[in-house]
Design goal:
The protein is an alpha/beta fold and 178 residues long. The protein contains six helices and ten strands, in the order αβαββαβαββββαβαβ.
Length: 178
Amino acid sequence: SRSAEYSSQLQQLELVWTGPSTHAVPTRRTEQVLIELISSAERSLFITSFVAYNVDSLVGPIKEKIKDGVNVSVLLEQSQESGGALDFDSIALLKKQLNGALFYTWSPEKGEFEGGVVHAKVAVCDKRLAFISSANLTGRAMNQNMEAGFLVTGGGVPAQLEEHLNALAATKVLALET
């Protein structure tokens, strides 16, 4: 039993690649990995991206998790009308589709991060799986762009990432969208 416990604590990294592939290095696509991560969530799911649109392949699995009682949180960049960098409101688009999810924004108005934007593209569930990627939550990033990332299974990184995001929300560094 100690060996099994030790093995479960080990961290595994998997390269994730969307775009041209080769037969020399086996990889999985961004969309496949995100769907797997979303589908495996049992208690919590936190996703961040600069922008989100045209990702129906992800919306369905997230809706199912909300129905199953998973706590779903999403952090996105705000539109220019709300003080962000996007020329459209990607939060409003996704909020219509994901009733029951919590939506957060980050708007540093002064200090060392003044003018900063949400550029992180990560997803984490249950403190055990984390996906860190160059891909935004867009149809092009899922299917056409050259994107790279890592799926982290086990170890301390998934828990650390989820705890950090939750702490940013709890301390109101991230603003809850109403």
